[in-house]
Design goal:
alpha+beta; globular; about 240 residues; about 15% helix; four-stranded antiparallel beta sheet; five-stranded antiparallel beta sheet
Length: about 240
């Protein structure tokens, strides 16, 4: 890989993301190019309880742009802070909406008559707190990628924008990893130390026997000789945008 394209999502707990393909410039112009590898880094907060996970899992399938049938297999990766998911950049993937209502780690508001109005006014801010949002950083690795440096649009959101070297967050990300692990011959940061209990470990995603199903809940299966089940949806109408 010679290029890395990155972007971030900050979604409410119950918000998913439609199935889509990572593609150069969103596939505009009818030319669909996919990255070599796509990754998702989960940054959301969560509690230690297993029933409190912010946001739904990522869904990765075995369907590609030029597939002749819909996906027959899938894998789920649940949102967990510092978890990194890597997968083939050519496959269809998305996000399942979070189940139920996300719990908040904010302290409960008092319910006296003097503060009832204040409590009601803070409902929206409580629901939208960072603790209840699914925050992810995506990185796509490319063999070749056109960096779009149009002077009128390079500072606007869009595909393959130049690296914003003038911003504070970009300067922080430019710090070499070795400088973060150990500075001035000091001991490595406890969260990055290989001897730490928080060290990285390989975890298999949860396999799915099927990805699509009929309205009655029965699994969808490709049926040879039938145009209805074997007709692939249009790329622009289904897998990109809404």
């Amino acid at each position: 890989a010679k290029y890395v394209e990155l972007w971030a999502h900050n979604r409410p707990h119950a918000s998913g993301h439609q199935l889509h393909f990572d593609s150069d410039n969103e596939g505009r112009g009818g030319i669909i190019r996919n990255p070599i590898l796509s990754t998702v880094l989960y940054l959301s907060s969560s509690s230690s309880s297993s029933d409190h996970v912010v946001g739904g899992p990522s869904l990765i399938t075995n369907q590609r742009v030029h597939s002749t049938q819909l996906a027959t297999k899938g894998w789920l990766a649940h949102s967990k802070p510092r978890r990194l998911v890597a997968f083939d950049g050519t496959v269809l993937h998305g996000v399942i909406p979070g189940k139920g209502v996300a719990k908040t780690t904010m302290p409960p508001m008092p319910t006296t008559s003097a503060t009832k109005m204040e409590t009601n006014n803070n409902i929206n801010s409580t629901c939208s707190s960072s603790n209840n949002r699914r925050v992810t950083l995506m990185l796509a690795f490319w063999k070749d990628l056109k960096i779009r440096t149009n002077h009128h649009h390079c500072h606007r959101p869009g595909a393959a924008r130049p690296w914003p070297t003038h911003t504070t967050w970009a300067k922080q990300l430019n710090v070499p990893y070795t400088d973060i692990v150990s500075t001035n011959d000091q001991e490595p940061h406890p969260q990055l130390s290989s001897s730490s209990s928080s060290r990285w470990k390989l975890v298999d995603p949860l396999p799915l026997n099927h990805v699509y199903e009929h309205l009655d809940g029965t699994p969808w299966k490709p049926q040879k000789g039938t145009d209805v089940d074997n007709t692939m949806p249009d790329y622009e109408q289904v897998f990109q945008g809404f």
